[in-house]
Amino acid sequence: MPELPETFVPGFHDENAVRKMKYNKFGNTGMSVSQLSLGAGGFCLNYGQFSLEQCKATVHEALKSGINYIDTAPWYGHGVSEEVLGKCLEGIPRKAYYIATKVARYEKDPKLMFDFSAKKTRESIDASLKKLKLDYVDVLQVHDIEFAPSLDIVLNETLPAVQEAQQRGKARFIGVTGYPVSVLAECIKRSTVKIDSVLCYTRLSLLNQTVKEYLPIFKSKNLGIVNAAPHCMGLLSSAGPPEWHPVTQEIRDVCTAAREYCNKNGVEIGKLALYYALNEDGPHTILVGMNNTDLFKCNLDVLHNGLSDKEKDVYNHVKNNVFAKLKKTDWEGVEVARYWDTVKA
Predict the structure, then answer these.
(1) Dihedral through CA 115, CA 117, CA 120, CA 126, nearest 10?
(2) Which of 2, 190, 277, 283 is the most buried (most CB within 10 A)?
(3) In a domain, 3, yes or no
């Protein structure tokens, strides 16, 4: 019988459900994290409408089902996600979950969007803890480091300020996140601050597999590895991407074709996207944004039961025929260039 993780709380968890969940050692942290984890990016208006009641129900159901890793950030809803998550966690034993948040990305206004300074980092950490109603977070991450004016600022200001918070007991471990995996690898290689985890999003998905090139580097450092957004921020969902998505038109068109093929065959493309991520070795947890219980149940079903024969046929078709047409499968540099053009203007 599988061992229960240290986050198991008798009387709160569904023990049978927890025993069904697969857990992986999260690098050198000592934490054992659930293979599927909960992203709170949708606990705000980033991806359309949401409700506090549904978010709360999702958090409770996810935790009781064995998910024990939750990720949020000040950027999501510009503080709303953390505030909503704090309300969702009220009354839940602190031992029952690991929680990660971030620093450095904040406001919608491009001039206020990023701040990698030590001063702002310290302020942000305290603000996050207040919103989350917690004394500490398990993982404190520097958000989207590729947007820094120079990686030197991240290395010499942001990460030392995060380390200072760690030394004061406000965070247990330190991480970095971003879209260009090469930048993450360079930061980890150059950092004098011990980095414990790395989060890259949409880079091990049906669409793009760039992270595979860098897994040996991350594993050599014994990092906890988070594969976030296997649905590529809505591209691989029945609803499609939000308006703000930075994707190129070519990729958008191919994803639309894949979505329409799935719809025609009565298959949810989101299930196929998650199935792909769950069957790739390397990352310790797959971080998926979920803000309602229907979405959670659908994802949990894929985790425990995989795909039906019909779904597998559709999966193989879109993987080997539709997505195989793409010559370039990422939008690296698009969002960063747009950001700096706007700031300079």
Answers:
(1) 120
(2) 283
(3) no
